[in-house]
Amino acid sequence: MRRPSALLGICVLSGALAGCLEQRSFLRSGNATSAEIMYSGDVAHALPIAKQHCAGYGRMPRLVDTAPGIAYFACDQP
């Protein structure tokens, strides 16, 4: 009886740890006209961060360029 619960505990802990190690997108730098977003995986993960940043200036993000792990956005007037 003890082995199944120990195995279950290890599986749950492994899953939780994997979720903690996942990198999140974040604003590297930005101002009223631009935003550099660090991301992992799909560049689409950078868009919500860019939207939030540009919205603070009453603007909308437009993807300008990408490099490995960095998305460059312009913050354009709507």
Q: What order do the helices and strands follow?
A: HEEHEE
Average predicted local confidence, pLDDT:
83
State the end-to-end distance.
Answer: 63 Å
Task: Please count the beta strands (DSSP E, at least 2 residues each).
Answer: 4
In DSSP terms, counting alpha (H) and pi (I) runs of 4 or more, how many helices?
A: 2
Share in helix: 25-40%
Strand content: 25-35%
Low-pLDDT regions:
13-21
Q: What is the number of independent domains?
A: 1
- Enumerate the strands of the largest sheet in spatial order, edge to edge or round the barrel: 1-2-4-3
Gyration radius, to the nearest Å?
19 Å
In terms of topology, how is this protein built?
Elements: H1 2-21, E1 26-30, E2 34-38, H2 47-55, E3 60-67, E4 70-76
Antiparallel strand pairs: 1-2, 2-4, 3-4
Short description:
This protein is of the alpha+beta class.
Quick tags:
single chain; 78 residues; alpha+beta; four-stranded antiparallel sheet; 2 helices
Description:
The protein has 78 residues and is of the alpha+beta class. The protein has one domain. Helices cover 37% and strands 32% of the residues. It contains 2 helices and 4 strands. The chain has helices at residues 2-21, 47-55; strands at 26-30, 34-38, 60-67, 70-76. A 4-stranded antiparallel beta sheet has the order 1-2-4-3. The longest helix has 20 residues, at 2-21. The model is unreliable at 13-21 (pLDDT under 50).
